Amino acid sequence: MEIKNSCELRDEVSLVRGSFYGASGVIFRVVFLFLTNLILARELGAGSYGVWALNFLILSFGNVISFLGLNRGLSRFIANYRAERKLTEIDKLIGSSLFLSILVSTGICLSLYGLSSYVSRLFRIPSLSAILKVTSFTFIPLAFIETVGAIFQGYEDIRLSRLINSFFPSLLWFLGVLLLVFTKISLLKIAFIYLFSFWVAGLISVFFLYSRKLFTKIEVSFFFLKKIFRFCLPLLFFDFLTLVTVYTDSLLIGYFLGSYKVGIYNIAFRIARLTPLLLLGNMDIFTPVVAKNLKEISYDSLRINELYLRNTKWIFVLTSGIIFAIIFFPEFFLGFFGRDYVQGTFVLRLLLIGYLIYTLFGATEAMNIGLGDTKFVAFYTFIGAIFSIFFNFLLIPRLGIKGAGITAIISILLMKGIAYYKLCRYNRVNLFRKEYVRFLFYSFLTAIGIGFFVLAFMERGFFSVLLFIILFFMLQYLILRFLDMIDEKDIELFKRSFYKLKRAFCF
Fold first, then answer.
1. Within a domain: 502
2. What total number of domains does the chain contain?
3. Could you give the CA distance from residue 288 to residue 279 in angstroms, rounded to a whole number?
4. Each residue's pLDDT expressed in tens, for the chain with a length of 507 residues
5. Range of the domain at 210
6. Among 102, 223, 263, 434, which residue's beta carbon has the most beta carbons within 10 A?
7. Is 497 part of a structural domain of the chain?
8. Is there a domain that residue 169 lies in?
């Protein structure tokens, strides 16, 4: 029994450590991207910034196709082979994956280059064509970077994975834009800096891949190409549809309302996307841990479910305070980008409600992928994408960017609800137990009470935001104690995790 508990804690410590590294990587990336977009938004203005945002959205769709789902599925493959001790097969797996990603990304690059003029005419923005021609060549290094990152995720080395696919690309991109501030900034200059940043980051990923010696030689196997493609195709479908769900609003805002409104909405969207950082970082390690547990006979479904439940509880605890703070003080955060962007206050609140729902359900996607149910993940994402397209077409022409915010809430609630229903019905996961529901209820009441208290007695600014966050986390801890939701395993988990993190950072 002692050995089993030790093994269970080992996985939970791995999740916490992986979540920390994953979230740290995401935080570094998001912070650098936040600062980069802050500079671009202030220097370009809402109209020109909206043109760059449309370019980025179009590239995002091409990137997802060039990734082929390898950034999600490859880590599970490697975790499975490691659990089964089939180490000789990993060489062929890695070689085939790298070959496939480079081949497909090159094809996508050439396709967008040829179609750039047509795309610019579609959005009625002539300057978009030249920008797309330059930035289309980022598909190749980005696909390689994501594949290498997935390889390290399969070995549960989230720290190195995040350095490769998050830290270095975003840092180089930020430094490049920072240098442009001292020159006469233009969209075409920004495009070349963007291209240069990712090719340098790609070369860095090559260095790390060979220096770690995870394989003896690069081999390309037709058998593995077919196997990888079959497994990852639903994940590609899932990623593409997720992007449709997330970014259709911005594309349709550009089509119906113009680049200025895209700039306003994009800033609100980027601030909202800051909030689920811990959950996004956690997903990188959650999938291989679940996959590894399924391959080890000593574990059963109850063990995996416990990982999911404990995981979800602490992600919500550590994330919800930031979300509530931005909901109560949106003008403070939007004001950093300029006065024009403050008009996105209402839509920012709508987006934050959506991400609050996204967070309280936990890592449903990673759980289903780890269980091998990739086709189901693709199915419910398809349903969400259809609803997203329908409601965006319906609401954006009538309500403007507010319609996009309402659609985001509907899509997130629908997809998370379907994903959780499957876990609850077929995998016996009961997240919304009585104590968790009571905790959510008390958390919402606490946030509302503190929010109105701070707004009544303080001006909206940095110190009011800081006070809100401190009071909320303090009262949330007391609520957890009152509901008896912190047990001995939580305490032991934090002790071991702190020790691991302390060693990792050499404190």
1. no
2. 1
3. 15
4. 444 444 444 555 444 454 455 455 566 777 788 889 889 998 888 889 999 999 999 999 999 888 887 777 777 777 777 767 666 677 777 878 888 889 999 999 999 999 999 999 999 899 999 999 999 999 999 999 988 888 887 776 777 887 888 889 999 999 999 999 888 889 999 999 999 999 999 999 988 888 876 666 667 777 777 777 777 777 787 778 878 877 889 889 988 998 899 999 999 998 888 887 655 555 555 555 555 555 554 445 666 677 777 778 888 888 888 999 999 999 999 988 888 889 999 999 999 999 999 888 877 777 777 777 777 877 888 888 899 899 999 999 999 999 999 999 999 999 889 988 888 887 777 778 888 889 899 999 999 999 999 988 888 888 999 999 999 999 988 998 888 877 776 665 565 555 544 554 444
5. 2-431
6. 263
7. no
8. yes
CB atoms within 10 A of CB 319: 21
Domain-located, residue 173: yes
C-alpha–C-alpha distance, residues 344 and 264, integer Å: 6
74, 150 Cβ separation under 8 angstroms: yes
User: Mutual orientation of helices 2-67 and 277-295 as an angle, nearest 10°?
Assistant: 120
Residue with tokens 């993190």: 501
Closest by Cα among 409, 303, 295, 420 to 366: 420
